[in-house]
Amino acid sequence: MVAVARARCLPPILGPVRSARSATAIRFARPPLSCSASAIAVVASMDAPPQGYRTNVGICLADPSLTKVFSASRIDIPGAWQMPQGGIDAGEEPRAAAVRELREETGVTSAEIVAEAPNWLTYDFPADVKDKLNARWGTNWKGQAQKWFLFRFTGKDDEINLNGDGSERPEFSQWTWMTPQQVIEKAVEFKQPVYEEALKHFAPYLQSDPTASS
Question: 46: closest CA among 125, 114, 146?
Fold first, then answer.
């Protein structure tokens, strides 16, 4: 099964954004409506992670009503928004890795797993991203093979802390709740097909259609 990313017009994000430094909601300012250039990005779906790909978990954290999804802006790449994710440690089960990564990146412990995507979703790194990440990790990965989990947040917004649990360096500068479609549109282009596939798996549990326009 494959999914192809196409050029999209990015609508403005509605709703409050919260910074890492403060629980105070701020408005997210972004440039006017724009379209990205056409690009082909293919994501593979398979029963087991293939050789040459870093095993990874992806976390779709939905709000208590299961209508909006957590997305955060990366510190190192301003304007790049994503759902939490992270590598699976040696000998670690994907489910345990997802719980750990959620806590490390967002500080969230008040959450329950609602669903797990049945297959691994695999994507390749663009050349520049591949070189940068492999230099940092001392590896030669082609890309990432991700196991995705849908969590329902059962706490209050002030529990979310982008400094995480203090065990890792913070990755995000601000966050907000988005519709599933907004999450896809705000992601970097090479991750969009994976986000589309993951959110299709989770659509029966969410109270909004991830393929619908926001």
Answer: 146
Instruction: Tell me the C-alpha distance between 100 and 122, whole Å.
Output: 21
- Cα–Cα distance for residue pair 213/179, rounded to 1 Å: 9
Helix, strand or coil for residue 40?
A: coil
What pLDDT, in 10s, does the model give residues 171-207?
999 999 999 999 999 999 999 999 999 999 999 999 8
Taking the C-alpha atoms of residue 175 and residue 133, their distance in angstroms, rounded to an integer, is 23
State whether residue 71 is helix, strand or coil. strand
Q: Give the CATH number of the domain where residue 112 resides.
A: 3.90.79.10
Q: Out of 24-33, 34-43, 86-95, which region has the weakest mean confidence (pLDDT)?
A: 24-33
**How far is Cα 190 from Cα 44, in angstroms, rounded to an integer?**
13
Tell me whether residue 213 is in a domain.
no
Domain that holds residue 163: 2-202
Give this prediction's pTM. 0.78
pLDDT, residue 41, reads 45
69 strand-pairing partners: 62, 178
CB atoms within 10 A of CB 65: 12
The letter for the amino acid at 117 is A
Q: What pLDDT does 134 receive?
A: 87
How many domains in the chain? 1
How does DSSP classify residue 31? P
DSSP class of residue 164?
T
What are the tens digits of pLDDT across the range 60-100?
Answer: 999 999 999 999 999 988 889 999 999 999 999 999 999 99
